[in-house]
Write a structure and sequence with these properties.
The two termini are 25 Å apart. The strands form three sheets. A six-stranded mixed sheet has the order 1-4-3-2-5-9. Strands 12-11-10-13-14 form a five-stranded mixed sheet, with helices on both faces. The protein is built from six helices and 14 strands. It is of the alpha/beta class. The chain has three domains: 96 residues, Protein of unknown function DUF3822, N-terminal domain (Nucleotidyltransferase, domain 5); 43 residues, no CATH class; 94 residues, Protein of unknown function DUF3822, C-terminal domain (Nucleotidyltransferase, domain 5, 2-Layer Sandwich), CATH 3.30.420. Strand 11 and strand 12 form a beta hairpin.
């Protein structure tokens, strides 16, 4: 397991904790409760993707036991569940008493699964998803009340704020170790969000080009903006540039990672932006 961290020397009497976890890794950010500014960010990357939420919980318990920064008192705690066990439902089709119907055609669900939902703050829709209930139970037992959301909810809300004054078509690709989220906006309105698991660079570019084709977007014309775990000196970037002419990285509003040797400003947009 690899650990990377950035800390600034600012002191804060009251702190908030936000954590994000997936089968690929665990990250957390500590914020000054009064200024809302980040003062510490730490990322743990697992050597190989974990096989189940149960194994993930064991890793999280170990991290909380050894990482002194997590052994503090926090004013509030929020958790972000990152997985592809979700779908986006417009409000006019949303029924909170029938959540399983939204997932049954795209996600393999069990009768014992808890299905829940988030309200998107900036649009008339809900994210319906399966959280890692065992991790929620662990956090509640140790910290009491906390908030949790699906990563796509946070990502879409932040990108809506980022894009709302831009009239152009915007094609965002949020990259994780084995998963991408593709989010497309047109005139400040969400046109598409989808998640794909990938193993190879050929899988990666296939999903990008397939999505563009379905939306009749010309790869020689639209602007593709990368977010997350991707660098310009990488095979994923290279293969994308073979097919898409206009590529950039998102310009985060946060200056926290400026001059960092371990992180780029676009890499942890969900937690720090």
């Amino acid at each position: 397991m690899q650990k990377k961290s950035k800390k600034i020397s600012a002191l804060a009497q009251h702190k908030n904790l936000s954590i994000q976890f997936s089968l690929d890794g665990f990250s957390f950010c500590i914020f000054n409760s009064e200024t809302k500014e980040p003062i510490l960010f730490t990322q743990y990357i697992f050597d190989t993707p974990l096989t189940s939420p149960e194994v993930l919980l064991n890793e999280i318990i170990n991290i909380f036991a050894i990482d002194k920064d997590l052994q503090q008192d926090f004013i509030s705690i929020s958790a972000i569940h990152q997985n592809n066990l979700s779908t986006l439902v417009p409000n006019k089709y949303f029924d909170r008493n029938n959540l399983d119907s939204y997932l049954k055609y795209t996600v393999k669900t069990l009768s014992t699964d808890l299905i829940t939902y988030d309200s998107l703050e900036k649009m008339d829709a809900h994210t319906v998803y399966i959280p890692y209930v065992n991790i929620n139970n662990y956090l509640f037992q140790n910290f009491g009340e906390f908030e949790f959301k699906h990563h796509s909810t946070v990502l879409i809300d932040k990108l809506l704020s980022y894009s709302e004054k831009n009239p152009k078509q915007l094609f965002f690709v949020h990259v994780s170790i084995n998963q991408i989220d593709i989010i497309v906006f047109e005139q400040g309105t969400l046109k598409l969000h989808n998640s794909f698991s990938f193993q190879t660079k050929e899988d990666f570019i296939y999903y990008i080009l397939f999505t563009a084709e379905q939306l009749e977007m010309d790869p020689n014309k639209f602007q593709l903006t990368f977010i997350g775990d991707i660098e310009k000196e990488s095979e994923l970037y290279d293969i994308t540039y073979n097919y898409v002419r206009n590529i950039n990285f998102i310009n985060s509003n946060s200056s926290f990672f400026t001059n960092s040797t371990d992180f780029f400003k676009h890499t942890n947009f969900i937690l720090v932006s």
